[in-house]
Amino acid sequence: MSFQDFGLAATVLQGIEAMGYTEPTPIQARAIPEILGGRDLMGSAQTGTGKTAAFALPILSRLAEGGRGGGCRCLVLEPTRELAAQVDVAFRDYGRHMDLKVALIQGGVGFGGQREQIQAGPDVIVATPGRLLDFLEQGEISLKDVQFLVLDEVDRMLDMGFLPQVRRIVEKCPKQRQTLFFSATLPPEIATMTQWVLKDPVVVEIGATRTPAETVTHALYPVAKDQKFDLLLAILEQTSFQSCIIFTSTKVAADQIAGQLHRLKHAVVALHSNRSQAERVEALEGFKSGKYEVLVATDIAARGLDIAGVSHVINYDVPGHPEDYVHRIGRTGRAQSSGDAFTIFTAEEVDTVRSIERFISAKIPRKKLEGFPYLYTALFNEQSLAPGGPGKGVRTMSGYSFGSRRRR
Ligand code: AMP
């Protein structure tokens, strides 16, 4: 199966070629023909599966056939600014050989630049719900020409309390439209929503959303509570990582850890929702470019963010929602490269760990870091605690490289 087989517009095929994609990923192979055929779609796919292109390429192809003009024909809603920015870039990349205008409408930045983008008459709007509603309520944007509506990461929109806003936005779109709906999980609120938002959708499920990406090696590191930070440092010391994301459950913890690592001369930055939009962009860009080797983040960064070359993920806390575990560790091992994920856990978190293991239907191996001066914790009485370095899969030429924090 190749991209040529779908009957995509020539300009879109040129865009795909420029991206260097040679063959469609499984979700692309399943979804592109259905979307080109005009069907509504409900998709659940793991992050890193090529989901964005799965909806962007056929939409762009249909837009290319229609020619320009006639208002905004495609609206994509995303839960976070970072995801919106990423999808905006994807549309621009894939549509680089088309006559296409894309507008990015997101909160946290001034209205002026976005107003200009709207006045330029975009074909595609990629937006977060709050800011889009502001413009809609001011009468500055009309959705009456929307033919394609994409609701992405709907379960995350639910978590963030956006569903009422999403509903109001959908009500402003024409009834006659094609709707593409993506959600990794289907809690009852979302199942109800699919019934009024979608018409006879084709369901595309790629891989079990409960399964962490196969390219990720993951393990649990039990430790006494007082030694969490020391263990984190020891793991960083013993791991030869290219770039590492450390997840924490709270913004305060993210700032504290970033501060401590900074004092220890790590190139580190924090990313969470209390930081300004400019700081968030700087953090992500700096992490992607290699200025920062370590990103300390709350779950805002766990979903869908496409950061290439993240070699390691460390969960400083066990995530409270099992799905977040899968999403967090999915930040590494993306797009065919492999990665390692470590989860530090303490006795208080045993139940949460069990619910994650039930969710992914697998027992996560317990490991002890060699040479670390462990204090006793009752967790060590659990069976199957393997001694070892910081996880297998740490890829260095000569085993583990101690003390090396350099990018390779
Ligand atoms: P996504 O799941 O949309 O976040 O995509 C994950 C990554 O895979 C992104 O970096 C895409 O650029 C990349 N990607 C998407 N489709 C393909 C493809 N057919 N071949 C190679 N890489 C792809």
Task: Describe how the helices and strands are arranged.
Blueprint: H1 10-19, H2 26-36, E1 41-45, H3 51-66, E2 74-77, H4 81-94, E3 102-105, H5 112-119, E4 124-127, H6 129-137, E5 148-151, H7 154-159, H8 163-171, E6 178-182, H9 188-197, E7 202-206, E8 216-222, H10 228-238, E9 244-247, H11 251-263, E10 268-271, H12 277-289, E11 294-297, E12 312-315, H13 322-329, E13 339-345, H14 350-360, E14 366-369, E15 385-388
Parallel strand pairs: 1-6, 1-7, 2-4, 2-5, 3-4, 5-6, 8-13, 9-11, 9-12, 10-11, 12-13, 14-15
The chain binds adenosine monophosphate (AMP).
The site of adenosine monophosphate (AMP) has 14 residues, from helix 3.
Quick overview:
The protein is α/β, with parallel strands linked by helices.
What report would you give on this structure?
- The protein has 408 residues and is of the alpha/beta class.
- The protein has 2 domains: 3-206, 3-Layer(aba) Sandwich (Rossmann fold), CATH 3.40.50; 216-402, P-loop containing nucleotide triphosphate hydrolases (Rossmann fold).
- It has 14 helices and 15 strands.
- Helix 6 packs across helix 8.
- Adenosine monophosphate binds at residues 21, 24-25, 28, 47-53, 306, 334-335.
- Residues 21, 24-25, 28, 47-53, 306, 334-335 line the site of adenosine monophosphate (AMP).
